């Protein structure tokens, strides 16, 4: 394996467990990083030449090396993949009694660049790095032969692939599947779209947060913004909400939300509307609408650090409009999947948008990603999800 040397002092972060090396941390006088092909296995060494870890590299990426093992000479190959995927799935089998969950969560499961979601006997995978792309065939073969999936969907169309110099593709390996597959959650059965929907078709990460809310909405009127296929709103209806209004800008998502409402026998209490969320919020405010519960679960407004100022304003605007639609004594679920929106900043936004309207916000609960999205303790980016449950007086 090619040895790559770090600058003096740059090994400190790695010694505390961090799994990445950035391209400006290498000693370019001693390291042949630029000449290596993306995904090449390497041995990381400190400035004295002492081995630090085994990794794979991409000289064209800001994150130039991702650690595979703290032991030298370890390559990302079939046996290691099998061992780690099995360990990841074993953790989920202990936590969940049904086969619908995120089976592999990248660095959280020591498998950098790999996401796998389990939908019964169908796996939907995303490969986001050049190093994992090199073992793509091993991943697919393992999922089918060792873990029994009849179909593996490769949703390799995420923007993260472009940062690694990889093409965007979608591929089905194994038995053909239709446009949708089913997910069971919270006592409901839902259709998800693994081929054309967002991400892998379903957001398992908010499972516990949806259950928390659904248990507290009986008899209440609910607005579900950025509703996608209705996971929050329909579970609120199943929990006894008197009326649910789902809003999303995607025609396909709204169609699925309507089908999911009908499938679960709550179509008479669920209205799904295709609209831009901010435009809909302003229209509802102008018409004097009020809701007992507003769910605000937007996409990541801050994908990169340089987007922070613009992203903070987007969170401020949407949360500010949302609180104006609350009935007296109403509740807000303010969620964020932006790792760069710090907890303190998120709380500050909620406080600031409430003050002009004389509202007194009280955070009564806080949720994060569910147990199938384990957080790497040295990599804050893996703890990306947050949901504040806010009551107003």
How would you concisely characterize the structure shown here?
The protein is α/β, with parallel strands linked by helices and 393 residues long. It has 11 helices and 19 strands.
Main features:
Archaeosine Trna-guanine Transglycosylase, Chain: A, domain 4; Rossmann fold; seven-stranded mixed β-sheet; alpha/beta; Transcription Regulator spoIIAA; single chain; globular; 393 residues; 27% helix; 11 helices
Q: SSE layout and pairings?
A:
Blueprint: E1 2-5, H1 12-15, E2 20-22, E3 41-45, E4 51-57, E5 63-69, H2 78-95, E6 100-105, E7 114-119, E8 122-127, H3 130-133, H4 136-145, E9 151-156, H5 160-163, E10 169-174, E11 181-185, E12 188-192, H6 207-214, E13 221-225, H7 231-238, E14 243-248, H8 251-263, E15 270-274, H9 277-286, E16 291-296, H10 308-323, E17 326-336, H11 343-354, E18 361-367, E19 386-392
Parallel strand pairs: 1-3, 8-9, 13-14, 13-16, 14-15, 16-17
Antiparallel strand pairs: 2-5, 3-4, 4-5, 6-7, 7-8, 9-10, 11-12, 17-19, 18-19
Helix pairs in contact: 6-7, 9-10, 10-11
At CATH's second level, what is the architecture of the largest domain? 3-Layer(aba) Sandwich
Low-confidence stretches: none
Envelope shape: globular
Looking at the chains present, what oligomeric state does this protein adopt? single chain
Q: Main sheet: which strands, in order across?
A: 15-14-13-16-17-19-18
- Terminal CA distance: 62 Å
Q: Helix and strand string, N-terminal first? A: EHEEEEHEEEHHEHEEEHEHEHEHEHEHEE
């Amino acid at each position: 394996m090619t040895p790559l040397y770090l600058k003096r002092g740059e090994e400190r972060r790695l010694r505390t467990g961090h799994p990445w090396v950035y391209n400006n941390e290498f000693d370019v006088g001693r390291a042949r990083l630029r000449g290596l092909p993306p995904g090449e296995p390497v041995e990381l060494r400190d400035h004295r030449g002492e081995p630090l870890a085994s990794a794979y590299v991409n000289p064209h990426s800001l994150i130039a090396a991702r650690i595979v093992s703290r032991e030298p000479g370890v390559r990302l190959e079939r046996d290691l993949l099998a061992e780690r995927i099995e360990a990841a799935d074993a953790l989920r089998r202990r936590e969940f009694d049904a086969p619908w969950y995120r089976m592999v969560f990248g660095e959280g499961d020591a498998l950098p660049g790999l996401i796998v979601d389990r939908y019964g006997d169908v796996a939907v995978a995303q490969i986001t790095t050049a190093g994992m792309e090199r073992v793509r065939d091993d991943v697919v073969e393992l999922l089918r032969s060792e873990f029994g999936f009849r179909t593996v969907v490769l949703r390799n169309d995420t923007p993260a692939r472009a940062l690694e110099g990889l093409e965007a593709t979608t591929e089905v390996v194994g038995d053909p599947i239709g446009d949708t597959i089913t997910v069971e959650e919270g006592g409901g059965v839902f259709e998800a779209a693994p081929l054309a929907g967002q991400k892998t078709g379903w957001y398992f990460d908010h499972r516990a947060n949806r259950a928390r809310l659904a248990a507290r909405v009986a008899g209440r009127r609910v607005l579900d913004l950025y509703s996608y296929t209705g996971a929050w709103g329909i579970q609120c209806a199943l929990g006894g909400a008197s009326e649910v209004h789902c809003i999303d800008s995607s025609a396909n998502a709204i169609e699925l939300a309507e089908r999911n409402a009908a499938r679960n026998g709550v179509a008479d209490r669920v209205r799904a509307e295709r609209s831009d969320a901010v435009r809909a919020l302003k229209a509802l405010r102008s018409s004097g609408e009020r809701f007992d519960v507003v769910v605000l679960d937007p996409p990541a407004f801050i994908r990169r650090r340089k987007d922070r100022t613009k992203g903070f304003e987007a969170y401020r605007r949407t949360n500010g409009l949302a609180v104006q639609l609350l009935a007296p004594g109403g509740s807000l679920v303010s969620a964020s999947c932006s790792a760069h929106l710090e907890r303190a900043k998120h709380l500050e936004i909620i406080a600031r948008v409430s003050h002009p309207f004389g509202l007194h916000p009280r955070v009564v609960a806080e949720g994060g990603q569910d147990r199938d999205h384990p957080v790497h303790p040295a990599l804050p980016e893996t703890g990306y999800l947050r949901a504040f449950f806010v009551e107003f007086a």
